[in-house]
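Can anyone check this?
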Amino acid sequence: MNRNLDGNCEESPATLLQRLGLPFKNALLLTRALTHRSYINEHPEALEDNERLEFLGDAVLDFIAGAWLYNRFPEMAEGELTRMRSALVRTEQLAEFGRSMDLGSAIRLGRGEDQAGGRRKDVLLCATFEAVIGALYLQSDIKTIQDFIHPMLEKTSERVLQSSDFLDPKGRLQEWSQRQKLGVPKYLIVSVSGPDHDRDFVVEVHIGDKVCGRGTGHSKQLAEVTAAQTVLDNLDKS
């Protein structure tokens, strides 16, 4: 590793490439992706910061996350897909992806930003992660980025599905049914199919003695959410 002006270790782009196994042919492009504008201010010989690559990476990530969600959750309603994508590509989550790769150790920062703890800041880690994705897109293709990103999306989506924020359709349906004095909705598994690693659940939601909706998904929780959303969508139309 190189040492920055404060004597702290800074991982070189070449070492990062070797550690992560990223298919970069042009190390200079990765160097640019790791270069924060504060570094440019103190090193005039450096020609460009990572902001343009950040812009490109942001667009690529939106597309990949949207396409992955569309195929991964075929029964999820458009509104829920939008909420899920927002959760997967929000600043804090992309910063976590950057931390999982230890990008902070390789970011090229100006002295002041480094002393201010820039390597640990969510906004800066998110921007660098997006820039690396943008650079990777220019070096390879969508398939390469999908292979790199999809495992991260899979792991994160499981946590999002279990969060109270995402499960809001069930809460809203329960509030409605209780206002109508119909009691608490009950969710019953109708069937489970598919291999262990790719299960499909079918769930019915019962309110009182009536079946009000049905949902499917790759987990019991997702099937319950889509069932609740189906009922809410029907209520909106009535």
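Reply from J.R.: I decoded it. The chain has two domains: 2-161, 168-237.
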